[in-house]
Specification:
It contains two helices and six strands, in the order βαβαββββ. A six-stranded antiparallel beta sheet has the order 4-5-1-2-3-6, with no helix packed on it. It has 118 residues and is mainly β. 16% of the residues are buried. The protein has a domain of 80 residues: 10 Kd Chaperonin, Protein Cpn10, Chain O, CATH 2.30.33.
Amino acid sequence: MKGNVTGHYVAVVPDEIEKVSSGGIVLAEDFDPNKKSRVEAASTRGTLVGIGPMAWKAYDGNDPDWKPWGEIGDQVWFQRHVAKVIEDKENLDKDGKPKKIFIMADENIIFNEGKADE
């Protein structure tokens, strides 16, 4: 991702949607681009790829024991409908399309699972 996240914003790359079920069935979303878009729009889990310098400081940044709620690489759940979506043309998904990056205010990260599985 080119550039830096500013202020109290964070950047999240959403998880890619599975195309085959755990039982090996090819999912319908793979054949119908409209269904794929709806499934992708419902995804609310991803990986933190950028954190602004003021993220989460409004909550308890004056506390001497304050620590940020997340760090780059953490797997998080987020409120997707409040994010600004940009395309990262330097990083492509499995289909060769630019990955989407969601830029949102820090309070829209609703759950931090810790480091993403590598």
